[in-house]
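Here is one chain, start to finish.
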Amino acid sequence: MRPEDLADGVRAILDHTPAFPDKRLFVDIIANPKAGGFKRRRFAARRFSELRQVVAAASALPRRAKDVVMRLHLTERCGHASAIAQRIIERSTANGADSFHIIMTAGGDGTSLETAERLLHLAEGEVDRFSLLRLPMGTGNDGSEGRDLVTALGRFLGKLKLERRAAVRVTPSDEGGKEPFWAFNIASVGLDAYVSDKTNKLKTVFPGDSYKFWVDVATLLYDRAYKVVPMGLKVWDLSGALVHDSEKLRLFVGMGASGNRQYGSNKRILPGAENVVSCSQTSLLRKLIIKNPIGTGRHEGISEIEHFLASKIEIRNSDTLPVQCDGEAEELARCDFPLSMELVPNLYNVIVPA
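Its structure:
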């Protein structure tokens, strides 16, 4: 499937959608033509079949009365989705007070992350004129609104409403000079950030989903790549009270925009209501035993795992450590600690069934 095929299908669906009937819809699709849903034959065929299914259902509905203006934008490089989204926002004021803007991303987690970050800069009075819809066109799709196009686009077959969502702000120490990062799914430090980094680098040579491969390899190699030193962890609950403060050898710590989240192609790292997970260092044999239960959300009885429901956490570390936000990784230096991760509510809109 080509991005143009997706755009044609989305247009056919929107011409019949009953959603936001009193608004002129302006829909911009930001597509990465190299994403797995376009380039990998098996994924592309599945997405195309799902698209045709939704188009067929939409064609049976009455034609929409209000206008729909749709545009397709193709990304060409890293950071391009962010520039496109900014241009869309800047030009939106010319579209009239009765307009409503939907920005769809059709790519992987990087495309979604860049686009969502642009929406954080909207003035409060402008936030409700925009909504984000992340289509599952990558190989992982952990942050998308549905893991298939029937779920993601099928919502246009009925009435829709806006729902405000939270994000995680990751703030390194001022001493390091780094700007804050944002995660709209999960942010983490340690072993799983190492896996994300290696997965992304392998994708540049062999496109596809290599996350599971790197989980297995990282189990063996992480302790050689990074020195596991005592890591301090403070946790504040939703009321702002400090509820945990400890220091121990830790393999990773992660925080989600909510609980019940996954990453790495549906690895259920946050299987319950708690939005923070910590895993302690353990022996190599023990790592091999627990890696699959952790990835599938079967955390009960795993003594190395701790969960928290938190508004904020602080991580202290005395050595270099990788960090990832929605699959995009980089390395932190000693001067970047202490590092805080904070849940910031009501930042941007997604569209959900009314």
